[in-house]
Write a structure and sequence with these properties.
single chain, alpha/beta, Nucleotidyltransferase, domain 5, 5 strands
Length: 119
């Protein structure tokens, strides 16, 4: 269960056919898993570039964990470094602009975490 105390994190991973996320909360020195999320990518989504698949992973996991995250400050961890810069991109168009709007509704900080230390 999610406590009112402790930092909330979402760890994201995206591969060619699937993306997944873990909602966790740090309590003291321990990180407790609250929930998991996973989904397969459809044929069109598999053709996206890596950055677009990473943004999609964040958008879908935020939608899935919305009841836990709405109105809270939290960190979103990713192994895709450029995602940190992309979230603040001012001149996005089309699908990417819509996705970035969805991400910007939340009070989150994108953090990079090297893949070998991940999930």
């Amino acid at each position: 269960f999610l406590s009112d105390e402790g930092n909330i994190d979402i760890g994201h991973r995206c591969k060619r056919y699937r993306n997944w996320a873990v909602l966790s909360q740090k309590r003291g020195n321990e990180e407790k898993v609250i929930a998991y999320f996973s989904r397969s990518l459809n044929r069109t989504q598999r053709q996206y570039c890596t950055t677009r698949r990473e943004v999609l992973a964040v958008v879908k996991s935020l939608a899935h964990f919305h009841p836990y995250l709405n109105g809270r400050k939290f960190a979103a961890r990713t192994d895709h470094f450029s995602l940190r810069l992309l979230v603040n991109f001012k001149y996005a168009e089309g699908q990417l602009a819509r996705w970035l709007q969805k991400i910007q509704r939340y009070d989150l900080k994108i953090e990079h975490r090297h893949g070998k230390y991940y999930l």
